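== Polypeptide entry ==
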Amino acid sequence: MSNFDKALEALGALLPRIRKHWPESKWEWDGRLDCALSTVPKASEGEARTALTAVLPAVWTADTLGQAPLLIRQICARTGGLLPGQFVFSVELPEGVFAYALWWPWGSGANVSVRIGSSHESAQPTVRAALAL
């Protein structure tokens, strides 16, 4: 098994752990950003953050993003940057592949959009399968 295959295997094992503890059951595919997408109401934010940090323990903010790994900074730049109040959760897998989640509160404060993806394009089928999309 190649190291990249090990990264895909690790990704496929991690993401169902998020889904198992996720406060909302609905996930969909965001083709614009090539990520899984779920919307969480404000009342479930704590549960959602707990599920994410259990699997994606590195948390980056607008203030700390400059210290994040290059691929995480590139993902944030590609998706519009990281604004105050937004977060990116991440974990590094074999071969320098990252799993990440973008935490974007809505302007109204009523909900948060969470997008989960991988730094490697060919891992998208694994993300989709692991989150049952």
Summary: The beta strands are 28-30, 35-41, 58-60, 87-92, 98-105, 111-118. The first strand starts at residue 28 and ends at 30.
